[in-house]
Amino acid sequence: MDLAVFGGFLLVAVWVTSQIWVDPAGRVASLYSSDPAQVQFFLAHSVRVVLYGEFPFFTEQFNYPDGVNLMANTAILALGIPMVPVTLLFGPAVTFVVLVTLGLAGTASAWYYVLSRHVVSNRLAAVVGGWLCGFSPAMLSHASWHPNIISQFLLPFIVWRVMVITRSTRPYRDGALLALLVTAQAFINEEILLFTAMGCGIFLIAVVVQRPGLWSAAWRPLAKALATCAVIAGSLLAYPLYIQFAGPMAYHGLSDAVRDYGNDIAAYLAPGSPTIGGNQRANVDLAPNYSEENAFFGWSLALIAVGIVLWLRREMLVRALAVTAAFYTVLSLGERITWWDRELMVGPWEWLVRLPLLDAVVPTRFGMITSVVVAILLALAIERSQTLDLDRRVVRTLTAAGLVLALLPIAPMPLPMTSRPPVPEFITSDRWRAYVGPDQTLVPIPVPSMGNTHGMRWAAATNLDFKMPGGYFLAPRNGNTGDPGRFGGRPSGIGKLLEEVASTGRTPELDDRQRRRSLDELRYWKAAVLVLPVRQAHSEPLRQTVEQLVGPARLELDVWVWDVRPLTDPRS
User: Which regions span the lipid bilayer (predicted)?
Assistant: First the structure.
């Protein structure tokens, strides 16, 4: 039975990702295509860690020469390193879709397993709970972009182990097991780990408030196990966390662009965009963007969840779950609580956002934990319905009708994809190697940034064999370790100039001062060659602009090439 359930979840995950599987290297989410390119870059970095023993927590392969703090940028080492054989054989684009598929199916399967063994005895209840945990609208929203966020298959085991240590007879062993799970999750996604830790704390507090007597029996094994966990996990994570918070290019706090991301209250009543009942246009004002639809239960599931709490309110477990869900729902609304994009009041996140660790959290994602709690409540409701004093056929009919009403509007659909430019043959055929030395950079045109990440895919396709300036990442705002974060490195004059040309298609007239400053930047980057794909949007205005800076281009295969070594290499 378990294998059938796991297989069913895998088939659903393949269905959801089917539009990417058609052509992994040539298909990408129709909006916000930068995140997949960044993830593929990180996957290629894992290859270099395994094959060449490169330092795992920092790299100079992009944003050269300043580099990027990978611990502060979710480099997903716990996913990328085990997938190195797949990346080597098939490339990072295939690894990306494999991780998305396994993230959805694995999360659903893990929750089903834990629910069926430790929470409910009814198999249907565990299947439904696992389904909603793995394929909720929030999970589907992130699936096109963030395999690190949807890879939550360790979370049910972490939660289970936390519950176990409250009554453990071997707290030191159980604390050590918890430490290993925590350490692994930290290298998948620290934000989700923080949410899980907070959720376990809120749930246990809600239980103790209702049953104070439980504390006297639980505190000793809990204290011993947590102390053991803290020592072991702290030892394993001490150096990576030091690099993250105090190493080169570390930052404290998120960019202002995402710090105030919150859910609209109405988002909890609307179906998610990638679902049967979803409407992307209707959701436009209810979430920060389509990759952050972290609520979107639909009105039927939202009302049914409230109904379950009212029906089973006499159960301590249900009340504790309800408190946890309410806590996360309120936090997910962000600094300003809104209803249909109309501000109602200041939210509690306004006072929490500046606290250590919480200053690096995107508040809308708290809604993902609400989804998990609702899934557990739904599983409990199915289990309890079997004890109702009604005819069995009536119970089955009511249960089936309730599940259809709750889950059909948010049933997953294939993630929408669009075509993206292929990696140039100039890159895949290794023709670039004739130009770029080990201490030089290849500069894609336009210069890689948050909105122009094709160059990052080029580098990932070569397993990062060349360095490049710029890129899409988080770095300290003013270039000093400890500053608040922002997207991208130090401002670049030539980068901003070419980005404007790429977006407008207009060729500017440049003066000598702009040429001198651009050459200074190219020298700082140790640029060897500038590369512009012939099929790049607005390639002609871009070519004309670059030619004003460094001279005529040469057509080589499918790109325009500028060999700038005579201008940038002091030995020339």
Answer: 70-90, 96-115, 124-143, 194-210, 222-242, 296-313, 320-340, 360-382, 394-415
pLDDT of residue 272: 86
Token representation of residue 173:
């062993």
Distance of CA 497 to the CA centre of its chain: 30
Cα 404 from Cα 149, distance rounded (Å): 27
Q: Are 302 and 270 in contact (CB under 8 A)?
A: no
Cβ within 8 Å of residue 61, ≥6 positions away: 45, 48, 459, 464, 466, 467, 468
Asked if 359 and 254 touch (Cβ cutoff 8 Å), the reply is: yes
Compute the Cα dihedral for 521, 523, 526, 529 and give only its sign. positive
pLDDT in tens, 154-204: 999 999 999 999 999 999 999 999 999 999 999 999 999 999 999 999 999
- State how far the Cα of 185 lies from the Cα of 193, in Å rounded to an integer: 6
Q: Are 361 and 344 in contact (CB under 8 A)?
A: no
Tell me: the pLDDT tens digits for 43-61? 999 999 999 999 999 999 9
Q: d(Cα 502, Cα 67) in Å, to the nearest integer?
A: 25
CA separation for the pair 145, 157 (Å, rounded): 25
Sign of CA dihedral 434, 435, 440, 441: negative
Q: How far apart are CA 312 and CA 307, in angstroms?
A: 9
Amino acid in position 205: I
Nearest to 91 by CA among 419, 413, 564, 428: 428
d(CA 350, CA 465): 44
Name the DSSP class of 447: P
> CA-CA distance, 321 to 306, in Å (whole number)?
12
Q: Looking up tokens 């960044």, which residue turns up?
A: 38
Distance from C-alpha of 209 to C-alpha of 146, rounded to nearest angstrom: 37
**CA-CA-CA-CA dihedral for 78, 82, 88, 93, to nearest 10:** -50
Rounded Cα distance between 386 and 403, Å, is 14
**Cis omega before residue 446 (within 30°)?**
yes
Q: Give burial (CB, 10 Å; 0-12/13-18/19+) of 216.
A: exposed
Helix (H), strand (E), coil (C) string for 346-409: ECCHHHHCCCCCHHHCCHHHHHHHHHHHHHHHHHHHHHHHCCCCCCHHHHHHHHHHHHHHHHHH
Tell me which residue of 31, 1, 35, 42 sits closest to 459, measured CA to CA: 42
**Taking CA 225 as the corner, what is the angle to CA 178 and CA 166, rounded to the nearest 5 degrees?**
95
Q: What is the pTM of this model?
A: 0.94
